[in-house]
């Protein structure tokens, strides 16, 4: 995938990984629509990039918000070549209730499904298009303390797999990004949370491996897109963990229980 000259839409681009991806794509020669539910943050990202960028305030979990992002890209730059489904939330600690599940699934999963549904007709007609799903290592492994996050990220990985299998022969590229700890506002929020379960969830992330910068993740993602590679693992150790899980599931579950007990003191 050649990035130069392409048009990219990035959700959750007001901060963290989304902002780093917007800046990296622009530096690689793409025109960028930086979307975020925080319109001011989206505008600030776009202003940092300059004239080849547009900031749009939109809820990327809703069909209307996705339409606003795509319409803005087409009006400003003519088309959409790359869509980065990055916006995400960790949700409430523990099991949560119905409304908690509704929100985390809307943002972490249905946002991807709705975006693909809106993009695919044009991409199939053109025979090209690229979907980037920013999931999480939690989608391959799990997340201690946050059921909604673990389950929704598993589902996001599953949807990205289905999308690549179903439409790869029609010219649609898919990259699924699965980092562990990244220095973002999301991680900062749970690290300093009052809730003990949220703090344990944060500790499970920060002690599992190096906490990377958002720029590290953006660089790994762009490399994966250029190579048309499905799975991007910014933390190389995740691959060994994933292999270990698949080799002996019961041993892995037991190990995760021990890890959780250690984190709880």
TrEMBL record:
<protein>
    <submittedName>
        <fullName>Dehydrogenase</fullName>
    </submittedName>
</protein>
<dbReference type="InterPro" id="IPR036291">
    <property type="entry name" value="NAD(P)-bd_dom_sf"/>
</dbReference>
<dbReference type="InterPro" id="IPR020904">
    <property type="entry name" value="Sc_DH/Rdtase_CS"/>
</dbReference>
<keyword id="KW-0560">Oxidoreductase</keyword>
<dbReference type="Pfam" id="PF00106">
    <property type="entry name" value="adh_short"/>
</dbReference>
<dbReference type="GO" id="GO:0016491">
    <property type="term" value="F:oxidoreductase activity"/>
</dbReference>
<comment type="similarity">
    <text>Belongs to the short-chain dehydrogenases/reductases (SDR) family.</text>
</comment>
<dbReference type="InterPro" id="IPR002347">
    <property type="entry name" value="SDR_fam"/>
</dbReference>
């Amino acid at each position: 995938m050649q990035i130069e000259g392409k048009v990219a839409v990035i959700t959750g681009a007001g901060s963290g990984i989304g902002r780093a991806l917007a800046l990296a794509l622009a530096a690689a020669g793409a025109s960028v629509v930086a979307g975020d539910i925080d319109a001011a943050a989206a505008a600030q990202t776009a202003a940092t990039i300059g004239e080849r960028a547009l900031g749009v305030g939109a809820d990327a979990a809703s069909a209307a918000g996705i339409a606003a992002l795509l319409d803005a890209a087409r009006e400003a730059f003519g088309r959409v070549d790359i869509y980065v489904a990055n916006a995400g939330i960790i949700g409430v600690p523990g099991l949560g209730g119905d409304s908690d599940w509704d929100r985390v699934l809307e943002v972490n999963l249905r946002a991807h499904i709705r975006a693909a549904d809106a993009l695919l007709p044009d991409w199939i007609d053109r025979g090209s298009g690229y979907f980037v799903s920013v999931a999480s290592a939690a989608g391959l492994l799990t997340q201690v303390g946050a059921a909604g996050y673990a389950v929704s990220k598993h589902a996001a990985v599953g949807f990205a797999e289905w999308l690549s299998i179903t439409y790869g022969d029609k010219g649609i590229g898919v990259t699924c990004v699965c980092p562990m700890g990244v220095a973002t506002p999301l991680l900062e929020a749970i690290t300093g949370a009052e809730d003990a379960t949220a703090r344990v969830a944060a500790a499970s992330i920060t002690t599992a491996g190096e906490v990377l910068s958002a720029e590290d993740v953006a660089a790994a993602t762009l490399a994966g897109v250029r190579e048309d590679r499905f799975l991007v693992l910014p933390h190389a150790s995740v691959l060994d963990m994933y292999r270990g899980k698949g080799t002996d599931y019961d041993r892995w579950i037991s190990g995760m229980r021990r890890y959780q007990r250690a984190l709880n003191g």
